[in-house]
Amino acid sequence: MRLSYPTNIKVVKVPCTGRVDVLTMLKAFEAGADGIYVAGCLEGECHFLKGNLRARKRVNYLKTLLAELGIEPERAAIYNLSSAQGQRFAQIAEEMTGIVRALGPSPIRKHNAEETPAGAQA
Amino acid sequence: MIVGNRKSLEEILELVKPYKKILLLGCRECITVCAAGGEREVGVLASELKIARKKDGEEIEIKEFTLERQCDVEYIEQIKPFIDEYEAVVSMACGAGINYTADCFPKNIVLPAINTTFLGVTLEQGVWSERCQGCGECILHLTGGVCPVARCAKSLFNGPCGGSAKGVCEVDKDTDCAWQLIVDRLKAQGKLENYEKIIEIKDWSTSRDGGPRRRIREDLRITS
After folding, report:
1. Angstrom distance (rounded) from CA A103 to CA A116
2. CB atoms within 10 A of CB B145
3. Residue A109 — pLDDT band, cuts 50, 70, 90?
4. Would you list the domain boundaries of chain B?
């Protein structure tokens, strides 16, 4: 397919999105990421039955923590797609990059200009 | 187990405002099981505090440390070698643990990150419910194992009251009427005659009315 997607996205591989913990995502923000998104399997198609459903709950919880911190909750998201949907993967990457770019750099980098912008994806 | 809730980030940030170097102290007992102050929650709070400080262009140094228990001096002593390197300790234990850590290190500032709420059980992953109020005189043998002190909103000893409707307490639609539970349980056990017995006025001196309580077993003491 030779699809391209924004180069600022760093992919973090996990065996299942059920492995993604709130702390894992929070650490990305702590390290200066402008946004993160979890790309899980389609709902109902988790090999481990509920991994992607649990990940969704955790992303929602992360959003409440971000709101408490005064960071836009839109900087975190979860998408569901199958491994055969390369096109959708590239599309989501563009979409999320657009959302985060519109929000601007993470408020935590405001005072730490020397840090390089980073994105993280699981 | 003892169940607690973490204080809001806003409140904790206010508590640690004057400090740049803190020791964040978790506990591996009850507060870990109720997902409020174990190693994971210590990690999350540390990360939140660092993000909040970075956002304001400030720094905070945090040492994350989780003790086996904060209610036994043998474990609390483990922080002795380094506690003085920190301006304050933020304890994520239950109230007992926070008290004892502060008692063991009276010169150090110990701040609470947890609101201790009740003695309870895990109904399901992520749901905890109150079961005991530590009144000091158990009557569960009379009530089919359902505590009217902890589970009846009015702590009635001869219920139910008029606020019980279809097995639900008037206080909250998600709260079962404890006396309905007691009657149902006794009926199922064929012990309904227990319900006929009037439970007499309770002597609350075994509860908080007698001030802070202590339990001593002389045969176990090694210091006297």
Report:
1. 17
2. 13
3. confident
4. 2-118, 133-201
Per the CB < 8 A criterion, the answer to whether A5 and A114 are in contact is: no
Domain B2-118: which CATH class?
alpha beta
Q: What is the DSSP letter of B212?
A: S
User: What is the rounded distance in angstroms from the CA atom of residue B35 to the CA atom of residue B109?
Assistant: 25
What are the pLDDT digits (tens) for A56-75?
999 999 999 999 999 999 99
**A6 lies in some domain:** no
Q: Number of structural domains, chain A?
A: 1
Residue of A99, A44, A110, A102 lying closest to A76 (CA atoms): A99
Residue ranges in chain B whose pLDDT is less than 50:
none
To the nearest whole Å, the CA of A109 is away from the closest chain B CA by 7
Domain span at residue A105?
Answer: 17-109+116-121
What's the pLDDT at B210?
81
- pLDDT of residue A116 exceeding 70, the answer is no
The complex's ipTM works out to: 0.88
Of B204, B206, B207, B201, the residue nearest B157 (C-alpha): B201
Q: Domain for residue A25, yes or no?
A: yes
Answer yes or no: are the C-beta atoms of B27 and B66 closer than 8 Å.
Answer: yes
CA A5 and chain centroid, separation: 15
**Which residues does chain A have within 8 Å of residue B54's beta carbon, measured at their own beta carbons?**
30, 108, 111-112
Residue A10 contacts by C-beta under 8 Å, 6 or more apart in sequence?
Answer: A118, A119, A120, A121
Strands (E), B98-154: 110-112, 114-124, 127-132
CA distance B29 to B69: 6
Residues on A contacting B at a C-beta cutoff of 8 Å: 21-23, 26-27, 29-30, 65, 68-71, 107-108, 110-112
In this complex, the residue of A26, A107, A110 whose CB is nearest that of residue B48 is A26
